[in-house]
Design goal:
Number of strands: 5
Structural class: mainly alpha
Radius of gyration: 23 Å
Largest sheet: 3 strands, antiparallel
Helix content: 55-70%
Mean pLDDT: 80
Order of helices and strands: HHEEHEEEHHHHHHHHHH
Distance between the termini: 39 Å
Number of helices: 13
């Protein structure tokens, strides 16, 4: 059964459910994460983790006739990053494994070769690139995604007589192109926000106005790189959304309708960006 097939993922989860039950209820592991056959256990003690690894390996052999991969099962410190689902996860950022990047770049060259030979059209190439870009969005890969889109536009030029078969797919690609041209400044702001800095601290550290920080956040929200629910209290978001009726409203009109001095124009702008993203 193909590894990427949804059916294989379903059966993998059914088969490994006994592992989940064993780890959570028998070993009483507090921090356990699993996706198909990739799982992580967190603990402060190396000794405890070594014990878990041995016990789990024995359990898998005896009950499921499988075992931990000897070259892919590690005990390491969090500050060195944790490999999970093709990513390397750190405290405040996520990176793509270099091996995955090399694999895609080989596929990209093959895609270009097939396109030049007329084996595939641009729509098919966009479909392939779109899947990779969607995967990359889960990590801090802004500069790399911008590089890929530029490479794609150079090697897969849009011709005037090209027929757009999948309009939705084409629009989604255009949206990613627009995101790729965003000023890198907003990405720096996002990184500092992920580290837990306040708007004021970000402005001080970057030597920019606090209002500029808010503008970056609104841009990031509109292009689905940041959730407004993570930067504003739920009560404020709900109250602002209740007073937005369409995309043609301006901030002053929304502010007047809200009639609450505790809500700023910057906060309204971020929620308005969320509204535009979800509605249009």
């Amino acid at each position: 059964m193909p590894l990427g097939n949804l059916t294989s993922q379903f059966f993998a989860n059914v088969y490994l459910d006994v592992l989940d039950q064993f780890v959570k209820h028998k070993l009483k592991v507090k921090y356990y994460i699993r996706y198909v056959d990739d799982f992580v256990i967190l603990n402060y003690s190396k000794k405890v983790l070594t014990g878990f690894k041995k016990i789990i390996d024995e359990f898998l052999k005896e009950n499921l006739e499988i075992e931990l991969h000897p070259n892919k099962s590690y005990i390491l410190r969090l500050d060195n990053g944790v490999g999970f689902l093709g990513f390397r996860l750190f405290y405040f950022h996520k990176m793509i494994k270099k091996s995955n990047m090399r694999k895609f770049e080989a596929k990209f060259r093959q895609l270009q070769s097939n396109y030049n030979a007329g084996v595939i059209d641009r729509a098919k190439a966009i479909e392939s690139l779109g899947g990779w870009l969607a995967y990359l969005e889960h990590a801090d890969t802004y500069k790399y995604r911008r590089h890929l889109i530029r490479e794609f536009n150079e090697h897969f030029p849009f011709k005037q007589d090209t027929k757009i078969i999948n309009n939705k797919q084409h629009k989604n690609y255009v949206r990613k192109v627009r995101i790729s041209h965003h000023p890198y400044s907003s990405q720096k702001t996002l990184q500092l926000l992920k580290k837990g800095l306040s708007m004021k601290k970000i402005a001080e550290q970057r030597n920019i106005k606090e209002s500029t920080v808010w503008e970056h956040l609104a841009m990031l929200v509109e292009y689905n790189q940041l959730s407004v629910w993570k930067i504003l209290p739920k009560e404020k978001v709900v109250k602002i959304l209740a007073n937005i009726q369409n995309k043609d409203h301006n901030l002053k009109e929304i502010k007047r309708r809200i009639n609450d001095n505790s809500i700023s124009f910057d906060e309204i702008n971020c929620v308005f960006a969320h509204y535009k993203k979800s509605k249009f």
